Amino acid sequence: MEHTITEDEAALYDRQIRLWGLEAQQRMRNASILVAGMRALSNEVCKNIVLAGVGSITILEHENITGQDLGAQFFLRETDLGRNRAEAAAENARLLNPRVKVFVDQEDITTKPDSFFTTFDIVCLTGCGPEQM
Protein backbone atom coordinates (compact mmCIF):
# COMPACT_ATOMS: atom_id res chain seq x y z
CA MET A 1 0.00 0.00 0.00
CA GLU A 2 1.51 3.29 -1.13
CA HIS A 3 1.56 6.14 1.35
CA THR A 4 2.34 9.70 0.35
CA ILE A 5 4.61 11.93 2.38
CA THR A 6 2.74 14.25 4.72
CA GLU A 7 3.60 17.91 5.26
CA ASP A 8 5.10 16.99 8.64
CA GLU A 9 7.31 14.35 7.03
CA ALA A 10 8.37 16.78 4.30
CA ALA A 11 9.48 19.22 6.99
CA LEU A 12 11.25 16.50 8.98
CA TYR A 13 13.09 15.07 5.97
CA ASP A 14 13.64 18.42 4.23
CA ARG A 15 17.43 18.03 3.95
CA GLN A 16 17.11 14.57 2.44
CA ILE A 17 14.42 15.67 0.01
CA ARG A 18 16.60 18.56 -1.16
CA LEU A 19 19.51 16.16 -1.59
CA TRP A 20 17.85 13.33 -3.54
CA GLY A 21 14.36 14.59 -4.30
CA LEU A 22 10.81 13.98 -3.19
CA GLU A 23 10.35 10.90 -5.39
CA ALA A 24 13.32 9.11 -3.79
CA GLN A 25 12.09 9.99 -0.31
CA GLN A 26 8.64 8.72 -1.28
CA ARG A 27 10.14 5.39 -2.36
CA MET A 28 12.03 5.16 0.94
CA ARG A 29 8.82 6.00 2.82
CA ASN A 30 7.18 2.98 1.19
CA ALA A 31 10.14 0.60 1.49
CA SER A 32 10.17 -2.51 3.65
CA ILE A 33 13.67 -3.53 4.76
CA LEU A 34 14.94 -6.66 6.49
CA VAL A 35 18.11 -6.53 8.57
CA ALA A 36 19.15 -10.07 9.48
CA GLY A 37 21.77 -10.55 12.17
CA MET A 38 22.06 -7.94 14.90
CA ARG A 39 25.74 -7.13 15.34
CA ALA A 40 27.74 -3.90 15.60
CA LEU A 41 27.53 -3.15 11.87
CA SER A 42 23.81 -3.84 11.69
CA ASN A 43 23.21 -1.47 14.62
CA GLU A 44 24.68 1.31 12.50
CA VAL A 45 22.70 0.19 9.45
CA CYS A 46 19.45 0.11 11.45
CA LYS A 47 20.11 3.55 12.91
CA ASN A 48 20.67 5.07 9.47
CA ILE A 49 17.66 3.33 7.92
CA VAL A 50 15.35 4.45 10.71
CA LEU A 51 16.62 8.03 10.68
CA ALA A 52 16.20 8.17 6.89
CA GLY A 53 12.47 7.52 7.28
CA VAL A 54 11.81 4.19 5.61
CA GLY A 55 8.33 2.70 5.87
CA SER A 56 9.31 -0.33 7.93
CA ILE A 57 12.28 -2.30 9.10
CA THR A 58 12.26 -5.87 10.37
CA ILE A 59 15.12 -6.99 12.59
CA LEU A 60 15.71 -10.74 12.39
CA GLU A 61 17.89 -12.24 15.14
CA HIS A 62 17.50 -15.36 17.25
CA GLU A 63 20.47 -14.94 19.60
CA ASN A 64 20.47 -13.33 23.03
CA ILE A 65 22.70 -10.53 24.26
CA THR A 66 26.02 -11.41 25.87
CA GLY A 67 28.63 -9.25 27.55
CA GLN A 68 30.60 -9.07 24.29
CA ASP A 69 27.68 -7.34 22.58
CA LEU A 70 27.69 -4.43 25.02
CA GLY A 71 30.97 -2.92 23.87
CA ALA A 72 30.06 -2.95 20.19
CA GLN A 73 26.32 -2.30 19.93
CA PHE A 74 25.14 1.14 21.01
CA PHE A 75 21.46 0.12 21.05
CA LEU A 76 22.14 -2.30 23.93
CA ARG A 77 22.55 -1.69 27.66
CA GLU A 78 23.87 -3.83 30.48
CA THR A 79 20.31 -4.32 31.68
CA ASP A 80 19.60 -6.05 28.35
CA LEU A 81 21.91 -9.01 29.07
CA GLY A 82 20.12 -12.27 28.27
CA ARG A 83 17.40 -10.63 26.17
CA ASN A 84 16.97 -11.22 22.46
CA ARG A 85 19.26 -8.91 20.46
CA ALA A 86 16.55 -7.89 17.99
CA GLU A 87 13.98 -7.09 20.67
CA ALA A 88 16.33 -4.90 22.68
CA ALA A 89 17.69 -3.09 19.61
CA ALA A 90 14.20 -2.50 18.24
CA GLU A 91 13.10 -0.69 21.39
CA ASN A 92 15.87 1.88 20.95
CA ALA A 93 15.47 2.09 17.17
CA ARG A 94 11.81 3.03 17.65
CA LEU A 95 12.88 5.96 19.82
CA LEU A 96 14.97 7.39 16.97
CA ASN A 97 12.02 7.81 14.63
CA PRO A 98 8.51 6.88 15.81
CA ARG A 99 7.24 7.25 12.22
CA VAL A 100 9.08 4.09 11.14
CA LYS A 101 7.47 0.74 11.88
CA VAL A 102 10.07 -1.48 13.56
CA PHE A 103 9.27 -5.19 13.66
CA VAL A 104 11.11 -7.99 15.41
CA ASP A 105 11.52 -11.58 14.26
CA GLN A 106 13.26 -13.83 16.78
CA GLU A 107 13.48 -16.91 14.56
CA ASP A 108 16.70 -18.37 13.19
CA ILE A 109 17.37 -17.21 9.63
CA THR A 110 18.06 -20.82 8.62
CA THR A 111 14.42 -21.72 9.29
CA LYS A 112 13.07 -19.11 6.90
CA PRO A 113 11.76 -20.22 3.50
CA ASP A 114 12.91 -18.33 0.41
CA SER A 115 9.46 -16.79 0.09
CA PHE A 116 9.98 -14.94 3.40
CA PHE A 117 12.73 -12.79 1.87
CA THR A 118 10.68 -11.82 -1.18
CA THR A 119 8.31 -9.82 1.02
CA PHE A 120 11.02 -7.15 1.49
CA ASP A 121 12.28 -4.49 -0.88
CA ILE A 122 15.81 -4.74 0.54
CA VAL A 123 17.48 -7.52 2.53
CA CYS A 124 20.65 -6.74 4.50
CA LEU A 125 22.51 -9.72 5.96
CA THR A 126 25.23 -9.41 8.59
CA GLY A 127 27.03 -12.21 10.35
CA CYS A 128 25.82 -14.81 7.83
CA GLY A 129 27.94 -17.36 6.06
CA PRO A 130 27.82 -18.10 2.32
CA GLU A 131 25.41 -21.01 2.84
CA GLN A 132 22.88 -18.67 4.46
CA MET A 133 23.28 -16.02 1.80
TrEMBL record:
An example Gene Ontology biological process: protein sumoylation
InterPro entries cross-referenced by the UniProt entry: ThiF/MoeB/HesA, ThiF_NAD_FAD-bd, Ubiquitin-activating_enz
Gene (UniProt): SAE1_2
Domain THIF-type NAD/FAD binding fold: 13-125
One annotated Gene Ontology cellular component of this protein: cytoplasm
Source organism: Podila minutissima
A Pfam family: ThiF
Record PANTHER family: SUMO-ACTIVATING ENZYME SUBUNIT 1, UBIQUITIN-ACTIVATING ENZYME E1
Example of a GO MF term: SUMO activating enzyme activity
Protein name per the record: SUMO-activating enzyme subunit 1
